[in-house]
Specification:
Number of domains: 1
Strand order of the largest sheet: 1-3-2
Strand content: 5-15%
Order of helices and strands: EHHEEHHHH
Radius of gyration: 22 Å
Helix content: 55-70%
Protein backbone atom coordinates (compact mmCIF):
# COMPACT_ATOMS: atom_id res chain seq x y z
CA UNK A 1 0.00 0.00 0.00
CA UNK A 2 1.25 3.48 -0.83
CA UNK A 3 0.09 6.94 0.10
CA UNK A 4 1.04 10.45 -0.95
CA UNK A 5 1.43 13.45 1.29
CA UNK A 6 2.31 17.06 0.63
CA UNK A 7 3.73 18.38 3.87
CA UNK A 8 6.83 18.79 5.95
CA UNK A 9 7.76 15.55 7.69
CA UNK A 10 10.55 14.58 10.08
CA UNK A 11 13.77 14.52 8.11
CA UNK A 12 15.64 11.33 7.46
CA UNK A 13 18.55 10.52 9.74
CA UNK A 14 21.02 10.67 6.85
CA UNK A 15 20.13 14.22 5.82
CA UNK A 16 23.44 16.05 5.94
CA UNK A 17 21.81 19.45 5.30
CA UNK A 18 18.22 19.87 6.59
CA UNK A 19 15.73 20.71 3.87
CA UNK A 20 15.30 24.47 3.58
CA UNK A 21 18.63 25.32 5.23
CA UNK A 22 20.77 24.90 2.12
CA UNK A 23 21.32 28.67 1.78
CA UNK A 24 23.17 28.71 5.09
CA UNK A 25 25.89 26.66 3.41
CA UNK A 26 26.13 29.04 0.43
CA UNK A 27 29.43 30.70 -0.31
CA UNK A 28 28.95 34.41 0.67
CA UNK A 29 31.39 35.45 -2.05
CA UNK A 30 28.77 34.53 -4.67
CA UNK A 31 26.21 36.97 -3.31
CA UNK A 32 24.94 39.25 -6.07
CA UNK A 33 26.12 37.00 -8.88
CA UNK A 34 23.78 35.90 -11.66
CA UNK A 35 24.03 32.24 -10.62
CA UNK A 36 24.51 31.44 -6.94
CA UNK A 37 24.78 27.68 -7.60
CA UNK A 38 26.69 27.59 -10.92
CA UNK A 39 27.93 24.00 -10.63
CA UNK A 40 24.52 22.66 -9.64
CA UNK A 41 22.91 24.58 -12.50
CA UNK A 42 25.49 23.21 -14.94
CA UNK A 43 25.03 19.58 -13.94
CA UNK A 44 21.25 20.00 -13.87
CA UNK A 45 21.48 20.46 -17.66
CA UNK A 46 24.67 18.52 -18.42
CA UNK A 47 23.57 14.96 -17.70
CA UNK A 48 20.20 15.19 -19.43
CA UNK A 49 21.68 17.12 -22.34
CA UNK A 50 24.52 14.60 -22.69
CA UNK A 51 22.01 11.72 -22.79
CA UNK A 52 20.16 13.39 -25.67
CA UNK A 53 23.36 14.19 -27.58
CA UNK A 54 24.70 10.65 -27.19
CA UNK A 55 21.38 9.20 -28.35
CA UNK A 56 21.35 11.41 -31.44
CA UNK A 57 25.00 10.94 -32.49
CA UNK A 58 26.03 7.60 -31.01
CA UNK A 59 26.04 6.05 -34.49
CA UNK A 60 28.93 8.31 -35.45
CA UNK A 61 31.23 6.83 -32.81
CA UNK A 62 30.07 3.25 -32.35
CA UNK A 63 27.92 0.77 -34.21
CA UNK A 64 27.28 -1.23 -31.05
CA UNK A 65 23.76 -0.79 -29.73
CA UNK A 66 24.77 -2.18 -26.32
CA UNK A 67 27.51 0.43 -25.89
CA UNK A 68 25.17 3.27 -26.83
CA UNK A 69 22.43 1.87 -24.61
CA UNK A 70 24.73 1.65 -21.58
CA UNK A 71 26.11 5.19 -21.96
CA UNK A 72 22.67 6.75 -22.42
CA UNK A 73 21.25 4.90 -19.41
CA UNK A 74 24.25 5.91 -17.28
CA UNK A 75 23.72 9.59 -18.07
CA UNK A 76 19.96 9.26 -17.57
CA UNK A 77 20.52 7.65 -14.17
CA UNK A 78 23.02 10.33 -13.14
CA UNK A 79 20.54 12.99 -14.26
CA UNK A 80 17.65 11.40 -12.35
CA UNK A 81 19.66 11.23 -9.12
CA UNK A 82 21.07 14.76 -9.49
CA UNK A 83 17.73 16.41 -10.26
CA UNK A 84 15.84 14.49 -7.59
CA UNK A 85 18.32 14.87 -4.73
CA UNK A 86 20.35 18.02 -5.42
CA UNK A 87 19.18 20.55 -8.00
CA UNK A 88 15.52 20.53 -6.94
CA UNK A 89 16.17 21.44 -3.32
CA UNK A 90 18.98 23.91 -4.06
CA UNK A 91 17.57 25.74 -7.08
CA UNK A 92 13.83 25.89 -6.33
CA UNK A 93 13.35 24.70 -2.74
CA UNK A 94 11.42 21.54 -3.66
CA UNK A 95 11.94 17.89 -2.77
CA UNK A 96 10.09 14.63 -3.28
CA UNK A 97 11.00 11.26 -1.80
CA UNK A 98 9.67 7.99 -0.47
CA UNK A 99 9.91 6.13 2.82
CA UNK A 100 8.45 2.94 4.31
CA UNK A 101 7.06 3.11 7.84
CA UNK A 102 7.22 0.44 10.53
CA UNK A 103 3.99 -1.13 9.24
CA UNK A 104 5.48 -1.64 5.78
CA UNK A 105 3.39 1.12 4.20
CA UNK A 106 5.11 3.12 1.47
CA UNK A 107 4.66 6.89 1.70
CA UNK A 108 5.41 9.39 -1.07
CA UNK A 109 6.28 12.81 0.31
CA UNK A 110 6.27 16.06 -1.71
CA UNK A 111 7.85 19.02 0.08
CA UNK A 112 7.94 22.70 -0.74
CA UNK A 113 9.46 25.66 1.08
CA UNK A 114 6.82 28.32 0.40
CA UNK A 115 7.73 30.87 3.07
CA UNK A 116 8.22 34.39 1.71
CA UNK A 117 11.68 34.68 3.28
CA UNK A 118 12.85 31.49 1.56
CA UNK A 119 11.22 32.26 -1.79
CA UNK A 120 12.89 35.67 -1.84
CA UNK A 121 16.29 33.97 -1.65
CA UNK A 122 15.68 31.76 -4.69
CA UNK A 123 17.70 32.86 -7.69
CA UNK A 124 15.25 33.60 -10.52
CA UNK A 125 17.76 32.75 -13.24
CA UNK A 126 18.42 29.34 -11.69
CA UNK A 127 14.70 28.80 -11.18
CA UNK A 128 14.06 29.46 -14.87
CA UNK A 129 16.87 27.11 -15.95
CA UNK A 130 15.56 24.40 -13.63
CA UNK A 131 12.01 24.41 -14.96
CA UNK A 132 12.93 24.83 -18.61
CA UNK A 133 15.35 21.90 -18.44
CA UNK A 134 12.78 19.82 -16.58
CA UNK A 135 10.07 20.48 -19.19
CA UNK A 136 11.96 20.60 -22.50
CA UNK A 137 13.90 17.34 -22.19
CA UNK A 138 10.78 15.14 -21.92
CA UNK A 139 9.52 16.92 -25.04
CA UNK A 140 12.66 15.86 -26.94
CA UNK A 141 12.33 12.27 -25.74
CA UNK A 142 8.68 12.24 -26.78
CA UNK A 143 9.75 13.25 -30.30
CA UNK A 144 12.37 10.50 -30.30
CA UNK A 145 9.64 8.08 -29.23
CA UNK A 146 7.51 8.96 -32.24
CA UNK A 147 10.48 8.71 -34.60
CA UNK A 148 11.47 5.31 -33.23
CA UNK A 149 7.88 4.08 -33.29
CA UNK A 150 7.13 5.08 -36.88
CA UNK A 151 10.63 4.04 -37.96
CA UNK A 152 10.01 0.57 -36.45
CA UNK A 153 13.23 0.83 -34.43
CA UNK A 154 11.95 -1.20 -31.53
CA UNK A 155 15.29 -1.68 -29.75
CA UNK A 156 15.72 2.09 -29.60
CA UNK A 157 12.09 2.41 -28.54
CA UNK A 158 12.92 0.60 -25.29
CA UNK A 159 15.72 3.07 -24.54
CA UNK A 160 13.49 6.05 -25.26
CA UNK A 161 10.78 4.67 -22.97
CA UNK A 162 13.31 4.41 -20.14
CA UNK A 163 14.32 8.04 -20.74
CA UNK A 164 10.70 9.20 -20.77
CA UNK A 165 9.97 7.31 -17.53
CA UNK A 166 12.93 8.83 -15.66
CA UNK A 167 12.34 12.36 -16.96
CA UNK A 168 8.59 12.18 -16.40
CA UNK A 169 9.07 10.94 -12.81
CA UNK A 170 11.02 14.05 -11.84
CA UNK A 171 8.66 16.33 -13.75
CA UNK A 172 5.61 14.80 -12.06
CA UNK A 173 7.22 14.92 -8.63
CA UNK A 174 8.26 18.56 -8.83
CA UNK A 175 4.98 19.75 -10.32
CA UNK A 176 3.20 18.04 -7.44
CA UNK A 177 5.63 19.64 -4.98
CA UNK A 178 5.03 23.05 -6.52
CA UNK A 179 1.24 22.88 -6.75
CA UNK A 180 0.31 20.38 -4.05
CA UNK A 181 -2.12 17.52 -4.11
CA UNK A 182 -5.28 19.63 -4.05
CA UNK A 183 -4.98 20.81 -7.62
CA UNK A 184 -5.45 18.64 -10.69
CA UNK A 185 -2.00 17.94 -12.14
CA UNK A 186 -3.10 18.21 -15.76
CA UNK A 187 -4.39 21.75 -15.29
CA UNK A 188 -1.43 22.56 -13.06
CA UNK A 189 1.05 21.49 -15.72
CA UNK A 190 -0.80 23.46 -18.39
CA UNK A 191 -0.96 26.57 -16.22
CA UNK A 192 2.70 26.26 -15.34
CA UNK A 193 3.86 25.97 -18.96
CA UNK A 194 1.74 28.99 -19.91
CA UNK A 195 3.19 30.97 -17.00
CA UNK A 196 6.78 30.12 -17.93
CA UNK A 197 6.24 31.02 -21.58
CA UNK A 198 4.60 34.31 -20.59
CA UNK A 199 7.48 35.16 -18.24
CA UNK A 200 10.07 34.45 -20.92
CA UNK A 201 8.16 36.55 -23.46
CA UNK A 202 7.87 39.45 -21.00
CA UNK A 203 11.58 39.24 -20.17
CA UNK A 204 12.44 39.52 -23.85
CA UNK A 205 10.03 42.42 -24.42
CA UNK A 206 11.10 44.37 -21.33
CA UNK A 207 14.82 43.75 -21.71
CA UNK A 208 16.52 47.15 -22.16
CA UNK A 209 17.95 47.62 -25.59
CA UNK A 210 21.56 48.60 -26.12
CA UNK A 211 22.18 52.32 -26.18
CA UNK A 212 22.19 53.72 -29.67
CA UNK A 213 25.28 55.73 -30.68
CA UNK A 214 24.62 59.47 -31.06
CA UNK A 215 24.00 60.57 -34.61
CA UNK A 216 24.29 64.34 -34.22
CA UNK A 217 27.93 64.53 -33.13
CA UNK A 218 29.86 67.10 -35.11
CA UNK A 219 33.42 66.46 -36.19
CA UNK A 220 36.00 68.03 -33.90
CA UNK A 221 38.36 69.02 -36.65
CA UNK A 222 38.16 70.03 -40.29
CA UNK A 223 40.90 69.28 -42.79
Amino acid sequence: MASATVRNVPLLDDDTIPFGEEDEMRDPSRAGQKYTHPYVTFFHLFFRGAAIVIYMFCGWFSESFITSFVFVVLFLSADFWTVKNISGRLLVGLRWWNYVDDDGVSHWVFESKNSESYQSRINKHEQRVFWLGLILCPVFWSLFFLLALFGLKFKWLLLVMIAIALNAANLYGYIKCNYGASKDLNSAATDFVKTQLFKNAMDIMTKPSAAQPPTNVRPTGVV
